[in-house]
Every structure is written in C-alpha cells, then in structure tokens.
Amino acid sequence: MVPIRSAALIGLGALGILFGKPLSEYLGSGFTVIADPARAARYQSSPITCNGQPCHFGFTAPEQGTPVDLILVAVKATQLVQAVQDIARFIGPDTVILSVLNGITSEEVLEAAYPGHTLYSVAIGMDATRTDRTLVYKNAGKIQFGEKDGQISARMQPVADLLTACGIANDPCTDILYKQWNKLMINDGLNQAAAAYRLTYGGLNASEEARARLLTAMHETVVVANAEGIALPADAPERWIAGLPGMKPDGMPSMLQDVLARRPTEVEEFAGIVRRLSAKHGLATPANDWFYHTIRAIEAAY
Where is the domain boundary, 143, 174, 205? Predict the structure, then answer.
C-alpha cells in the first residue's frame, strides 16, 4: 500500500494529546483534529501542552471532513457512539481506523459502522496524566495493532511506518486479541482499584486490601478470557503486579483521573464487560462485581 500522508484524530484526552502531538508535527497540514466548532473553541480557549511543550493542532468540523488515510480514535468509551457519526466524512475507500480506546469492544462498534476499515489495537505502557489541557508523562508507551484474524496484511506496514516516523513506538502483531485481553486484565485491576479506593500507583502498592482485590479482579478476567478462547496464563496477574513498585508513585490511571474530575468512567468497558461475559459462561466475578457497584455509586454521588 502507499504511504500514509494524512490523518485525523478524534478525542483530545490523555492519549489523544500523547499521540496527536507527534502525528501533527510529522504530518503538518496533513493532520487535523475532528471537533465541532463549540468543542474546537473550548480546545483553543487555553494552551494545550504535552510535557511543557505547546501543541499546535488544526481542527475540522465533522460536516466539513474529507477522506484521510488514517483515523485515530482516542475518545472515551462513553463518547464512542457520537465519534462514529463524527468521523463519517473522513473515511474513504482505503482509510484505516485505529482505536486506542480502553476495553475490547470499540473495534467491533467501528467495524460494524465502517466494515473493512478497522485494525484492532491497544495502547500500553504509558503513564500519562492530564489536568485540563496539560498532559505530563514519563513513559510514552506504544501502540500494538494487528488484524483480528492474526494475519499480516498489506495495510499494517504503512501504519507501522507512519508511527515509527513520528517517533511513536509500535508493534505490528499477530496476536492482537491476546494483547487486548491482557490490557483489559490490567485495567480491571489497576484502573478500577485506583478509582474505587482513590489511590495513586504508590497508594495501591502500599494498600494490602487494594492489592488483594485488584489481583482477584485480574484473576477473574483471566478465567473469563480463557472461557472466550484467549489463552492468558494463570500467573499473568502476579507477573504484572511485580512491576507495580516501579511505577511513578504519584501517578494515576485514567479512571482515577475521571473520578477526581467527576467525569463518567469506563467501568462498563472493564467490570461491565467481564460481568456480562462471565454470566454467559456461568462464572462468578465477586471482585469485579464489587468494583462495578462501588464505582457506579461514586459516579452517582457526583
């Protein structure tokens, strides 16, 4: 396939800023952020910075879109339905859609709306924290992506070439569903425990109760993944949590950031999906049940 020369981003949260900045700097006028005039005005009302450096984004309203080679979807799961509508005019015959949303369902939604355009992907390893328009991070992480069926397709290399040229670490892979479930396992523990207990990475590391519950939630996810045909190993939670002490002590995952900002969380994409799939297989998920009801109660108290 031909090189990717144009791209559009929808969603300027933590990952949108993290990946949007290098894409905009590399592609220049070939890059735009999809936003209606009111949202664009809010984005432009105060400087957007990434590790202290200003971000200079151009904006295009959904109804003024023209086809681009790549669309990066970086909205929250709660905003995906609207995003599906907003990207319509940016999709041409060969447009590739890449979603960095948490969870394992966004690609299904995008592929249902625009068949044949979506690569499955997952963003891992970043520790980005956004406050209003300011993003700070120590680790930029990387984007893993691939075809749902595990094949190496012709459209994967141009995506890898673009991300590499921008300085975005990436990993074209043949086991993307495994990698998505592994990230879901982490989120079911880390993200939900941080939000439910209102603890940073350092706080989670110091709390025996929080660590025990997050580990249990992760094990429940492994069991559900196995039932769905995804071979996550039984000791994956223990191997992951061994690295928790090395994470930035005052850092916090996205769900805690949402709770502190009194925003809707992605609990439906974490505990919610695990609970729904566990019911299908007759499995119990008490830790994920507790996280689900606790976080829903936090949201209700806003």
Answer: 174
